[in-house]
Amino acid sequence: MEPAIDTKLREYSRAEVAKHDNAQSLWVIRGNQVFDLTTFHTDHPGGSDVLMQFAGQDVTEVMRDSSIHTHAIQAYRVLKDFYVGEITSDERQDQPPASGRDEMEQVEEEKFLDLNRPLFMQMWNSKFTREFYIREVHKAHHLPRPAVFFANSFCETFTRTPWWVIPVYWVPIMVTLLVLGVKYEPLNVMFVGFVFGLVSWTLLEYSMHRFVFHYDENIPEGTIAQVAHFFLHGVHHFLPMDPLRLVMPPALSTFLGLNILGLLCCIFTPGMVHAVAAGLTAGYVLYDECHYWLHHGTSSNKHLSQLKTYHLRHHYKDFKAGFGITSDFWDTVFGTQFATPVC
Asked: N or C: which end of the chain has fewer CB within 10 A?
């Protein structure tokens, strides 16, 4: 089955592909088809360095070699988004898999959403069953540009949040809470409350991700429930590398924050409320910035690299496990680790 992409068929020799062997122009060959991964290599779940090793080369057998990097059928689905042409007929090679059926043939035909059209109206007018929706929304896709939610540019603006908006918006609020809090409690008490809030965020982060964002199979049947799920978190699994949908829009996070603040006011006294709320805010800022980095950052630090691999496994391998973002601690406590260890 050929990639479902409407382009003028281009043919390239293996020598031509070999010229695209660097970060500025990174092409690979897979099954006699040519793919341009220039905009993807920094987002590769296994790390950019893995792809750079094979830039300009044939990766057909490499993708089948689990000792290098394990690739599920999901990887071939993502790869199709970067198809640019075919290898010339005189240089084509027969490289059948051991199973006898080529991996690209196992990628199902797209029946969900058209990424070239605004997503909101497609979801609103959809008649998907809950089972179909949950299955399809967790199949990762990749675009070299931010997806469009609304045809109306004004509405579209509110769906896009660059990473830097989070500290710019929330850090002044955190500082204000601390300044107001010291009017009620001494600094040592404020410090204890702040640390308590910061640590508590890790559990709140885990709980929201697991029980709210991944309500998944428990959502009611019907389009409205699917639209709500899609815009709350589903789109992030459908387009995990969209740079403008990796952190929460301030309008939504403010709504959630006010509800949490109301709950804190019922538990703590003035001063301590401010300190705990400031700690939670600091935890949230660190979480959102960490989340953005896990998708688009790179590091030679072993711990950070493992954390990135852990989170991307949640996206590309098993969305029903690995709910921790900044740490896997609560996954360990509540038994939601991945079935096999993350290397």
From this structure: C
